[in-house]
Amino acid sequence: MRADIIKQAMHYGFYLGLYLCAKFFLSMTQNAFLGFLAFVMWVSIPFFIYWVVKKYREEQLQGFISFHGAWSLSFWIFFYGGLILEVAQFIYYQFINTTFLEQSLQQSLQLTEKMNISMQQQNLDMLEKIMTHPNLYVLTDFTIYTLIGGAIISLLIAAIAKHKPNPFQ
Q1: In this predicted model, what pLDDT tens digit does every residue of 98-115 receive, in sequence order?
Q2: Beta partners for residue 163, in sequence order
Q3: What pTM was computed for the model?
Q4: Which phi-psi region, left, alpha or beta, contains residue 108 (left: φ > 0; alpha: ψ -120 to 50)?
């Protein structure tokens, strides 16, 4: 069963990755409608994952799945989808829009100055260090956030999707 879960997770993780890439590129535009569409896509991700887990449960496991099985499938779908997204983000930040992260950080620093928010020197030093290799730091953060968020959402999906056989039948 474990190998089958990983195979299914890779399959649907690929589709989730493409979906996340489309959401990412829509969110990078300056168009308000496309930004809203990206938000709707983001909100719909748990429903897609639940649909996949339920479909797997019904078609492959005769309608029964444990909490652990549902969590594993859901988490691994997030993992593989997140890997595809991270590759797309790396390509975007490294080759397509190479100054985006630096500009965003500069705008954040200018905003803190306008708002008279004082920053400690160690925070400024850390930001300066991040600015030397922004892609590495940001993509590492995105990967960690994807895994943590995927694990937490997977807990909720698994709690809803699990279905054990009735022991009295």
Answers
A1: 777 777 777 777 877 788
A2: 65
A3: 0.81
A4: alpha
d(CA 49, CA 150): 10
Residue 71: inside a domain = yes
Q: Which domain holds residue 80?
A: 2-97+135-161
Residue 109 lies in a domain: no
Overall domain count for the chain: 1
Reported as a single tens digit per residue, the pLDDT across 95-154 is: 888 777 777 777 777 877 788 777 777 776 777 776 666 667 677 777 888 889 999 999
Signed CA dihedral, 109, 110, 115, 116: sign only: positive
Contacts of 158 (CB under 8 A, 6+ apart): 53, 67, 68, 70, 71, 74
Alpha carbon distance 64, 59 (integer Å): 10
Taking each helix axis as running N to C, give the angle between helix 67-91 and helix 2-27, from 0 to 180 degrees, rounded to the nearest 10: 40
107-116: Cβ within 8 A, 24+ apart? none
